[in-house]
Amino acid sequence: MTKAESTTSVTETIELAPSYKIPLFLVVTAIPVSIIQVWVGLVIAVLGLFLLIQTITIRLVFTPTALEVNRSGQMIRQFPYADWLTWRIFWQPVPILFYFREVKSIHFLPIIFDPKTLLSCLEKYCPTES
Hints:
Strand 6 and strand 7 (about 105-110) form a beta hairpin. This protein is α+β, with helices and mostly antiparallel strands. The chain has a single domain, classed as Roll (PH-domain like), CATH 2.30.29. About 15% of the residues are buried. It starts with 13 loop residues before the first strand and ends in a 5-residue tail after the last helix. The protein contains three helices and seven strands. It has a four-stranded antiparallel beta sheet. It has a three-stranded antiparallel beta sheet with strand order 5-6-7, with no helix packed on it. Helix 1 (about 20-35) packs antiparallel against helix 2. The protein has helices spanning about 20-35, 40-55, 115-125; strands spanning about 15, 60, 65-70, 75-80, 85-90, 95-100, 105-110.
C-alpha cells in the first residue's frame, strides 16, 4: 500500500495595512514650523503630502518567496527573500524607517504601513541571525 503525500503548498500572502502616522505628523508639524520659518515648513509639508500619497497608493505584500511592492493593485517590484542579506527597523519606540539589504542593493522605506505586521512578517519570512 502506498502512502499518499500531501501536495498542498503554503500560498499565504500578507498585505500590510497602511499607517498614516508619519505623513500626518509631518503635515501637522509643518504648520507651526511655517510660522517660524516658511521655507522649512513648506518642505516638511511637501514631504508629508508626498508620503501621504504614497501611503494611499503603495502596498507591501509578503508572499512565500518574495516581498512585492504594489502600486494601486499592480506589482511594480519584487524582492526575493533568497537575495536578502539583512534587514532592520530603525527607532523601535516609534518605527520610522525600514532598511533591508540585498546581494546587489540597499533599500530604505519609510514606515507607511503597519509596523507590527511588518515585523512579524520579516521574522517569519526572513529571520535574522541575531
